[in-house]
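for the writeup, i need someone to sanity check this before i put it in the appendix. the sequnce is what the collaborator sent (i think, or maybe the updated version? ugh). structure was predicted straight from it, no edits. if anything looks off just tell me and ill rerun, i have time this weekend
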Amino acid sequence: MVPVVTILIILAALLIVAVIRHTYGKDYTPSSPHIPDEALTLQQAQSLYSDGELTTRAGYLHYNLSKAYEVPDKDLGAFVGYVKPDAQHDGTLFIYDSDDRLRGRITDQRDYYATLLSRRHTNCYGFVTKSPDGSYYGEVCLRKI
């Protein structure tokens, strides 16, 4: 009877050690709600752009475009689109409108660029306009990721 009890005690101890090793070091992480990457409508973007200034919505980050590209006069003003990382230049983000036309770029944004690489793109809104001297400039608000 003593050998059977000893074997049962050893098996119980091994089982307890296995359970402890399996659960040890695993931190509890509460589930966070998924925030949908909702796209704004052009009318909403136009309401956020007035008098040459862009209002930033909650959940977005505001940037001045490092380079705004030329667009037809009918397309000047507010736009809705998406941002993609530049595969050739680390830290550079390309801004496209919803018609897949390049509107501008933002440089030296390494943290956002690194985060965006895993997502490939995210939504944005902004404006591009023409200054009196003929150059283009603009601002953009990127969805916080």
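The helical segments are 2-23, 42-48, 110-119. The chain is about 25% helix and 30% strand.
thx in advance!!
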